[in-house]
């Protein structure tokens, strides 16, 4: 699944390593201090580079956050497309999407916290960023819905543009609940099953 | 000039009118500048009061934001309970909830923007606030779900604690879409109908 990384690992130019080191450090620093209270110097220290080095790779703190989001999302999109491509059943595709979205929390808790909580604290991001990658991610969902409608499995009256946002919002809220709740009442598996069942029922004819 | 330092006996009790004036001013200032870029002095100017007056009513900027959220939510909860009380049908109650949540955007755009976008920019709010009022709001939804299950109208396997969050997340995302999109592709009525239909189908037996 994560073939991209392995494939490229030997060809990485030296600066690619630093770029990633800075991003990994930023995840830690943002998750610990919150986006607004984090300083470039803290990220530099965590990454083991000089403050000035950060600016060779990123314009500013907002830029780090946005790149963090975009690169992670890129990876998730690639993974998802590969997994979804293995089945022709839109119901199965939908299940894969929900599971992937929700289990990312468990695999990368700090990153999930940064994306769910801290990203919204970047005013620049919320107001000015043109969310191309995010749009691409949501469109996986609308393609699944459209395919389900074409195959006569999902209801014809559903508008993918609205439904995809509803589903994303629901999943995002579940992630927020986990990252902000010290001892969540519901385990991940229960949530994946409940949410999948609830939405599939809403989609199906 | 002599000033009486005996604050306890001479301090005027805070006036309801001023409290509201400050909150209304804060909505405008937060919506215009974003939470983090807003200053107490700007709120004071907008409200037509001295900077120091703000601190008679609120501890700090975060406190203003949280009180804004809590008081508006209180109003919405009262309204909702009154409307929901007029029907015995959990399906109708659910429709009322969705419509109320989504149409609040149209009635109070600035406030909706503040709640959806700016509230998440308050690190204090996201991490430390114990969302009692918010919990109360979500529990209206879980009561409707529970009632529907008891009456045999909604499916017995649904867990209200998970489903209420999914539904809230979906509605919140729709609101976010409206406040951040200059010319939304979908009108409010279409969204209310799509979302209600999609979720009711997921809930019903």
Explained architecture:
Two copies of one chain form a homodimer. Chain A has helices at residues 3-8, 14-33, 40-47, 51-57, 61-84, 90-107, 109-118, 123-128, 132-150, 160-180, 188-203. Chain A has 205 residues and is mostly helical. In chain A, helix 2 (14-33) crosses helix 7, helix 5 (61-84) packs across helix 6 and helix 5 (61-84) packs parallel to helix 9 (132-150). At the A-B interface, helix 8, helix 10 and helix 11 of A face helix 8, helix 10 and helix 11 of B.
Descriptive terms for the model:
homodimer; 205 residues; mainly alpha; Arc Repressor Mutant, subunit A; Tetracycline Repressor, domain 2; 2 domains; 11 helices; 0% strand; elongated; disordered N terminus
Subunit arrangement of the protein:
homodimer
CATH topology of the largest domain in chain A: Tetracycline Repressor, domain 2
The CATH class of the largest domain in chain A: Mainly Alpha
Q: CATH superfamily membership of the largest domain in chain A, which one?
A: Tetracycline Repressor, domain 2
Contiguous runs where pLDDT drops below 50 for at least 5 residues of chain A? 1-14
Helix-strand category of chain A:
mainly alpha
């Amino acid at each position: 699944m994560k073939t991209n990384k392995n494939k490229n690992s030997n060809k990485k130019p030296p600066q690619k390593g630093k770029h990633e080191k800075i991003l990994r450090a930023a995840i830690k620093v943002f998750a610990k201090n919150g986006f607004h209270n984090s300083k470039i110097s803290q990220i530099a220290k965590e990454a083991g580079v000089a403050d000035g080095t950060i600016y060779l790779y990123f314009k500013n703190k907002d830029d780090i956050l946005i790149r963090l989001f975009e690169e992670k999302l890129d990876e998730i999109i690639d993974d998802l497309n590969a997994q979804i491509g293995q089945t022709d059943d839109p119901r199965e595709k939908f299940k894969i999407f929900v599971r992937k979205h929700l289990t990312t929390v468990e695999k990368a808790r700090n990153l999930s916290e940064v994306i769910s909580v801290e990203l919204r604290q970047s005013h620049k991001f919320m107001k000015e960023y043109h969310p191309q990658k995010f749009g691409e991610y949501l469109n996986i969902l609308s393609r699944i819905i459209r395919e389900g409608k074409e195959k006569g499995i999902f209801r014809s009256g559903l508008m993918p543009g609205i439904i995809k946002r509803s589903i994303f919002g629901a999943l995002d809220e579940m992630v927020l609940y986990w990252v902000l709740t010290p001892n969540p009442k519901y385990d991940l598996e229960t949530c994946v099953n409940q949410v999948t069942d609830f939405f599939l029922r809403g989609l199906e004819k």
